[in-house]
Design a protein that fits this description.
8 helices
Length: about 160
Amino acid sequence: MCLAFVFYQDMRYRAVYWICFPILAILLFGLKFSLTGFIDGLTEAGYGLLFLLIQLFFLWIYFSVKNKGMVNITNDYLGWGDILFLIAITFYLSPGNYVLFYISSLILVLIYALCTSSFQKENKHIPLAGLQAALLALLMMTDHLLSTFALYSDRWIYILMS
């Protein structure tokens, strides 16, 4: 329900109440804690957060070089809601699944933005967190229905590779 609320708010208002993200993080960590344990959950969240920080650092460097000066990427390029959503989902997804979700969801959102850019004249902001929330909700439902993979564990990736 929390993911659906993030999706609705971001699609409708292009903004999400900040309180949704700590609630989402707590709910997702509670689910992961019940499946993997406290230490494994925190360790894997740490890996996801490290990956995200590295991504944000390189994004900041890119836009600073492009604009020939220091920039604040949250002013014009990336919303705080998008960053908070990406932080919140680290508390559920395993590191491998986080990277796969991060890359694939960015590609799908880019395709969405390219397809809808000619129709939307008044609001050019991309609802990144909302679309990623919808994708994660679909993945979580699929994960629940099919036991072939688990979003909270990288085991299914290793099975596919062997």
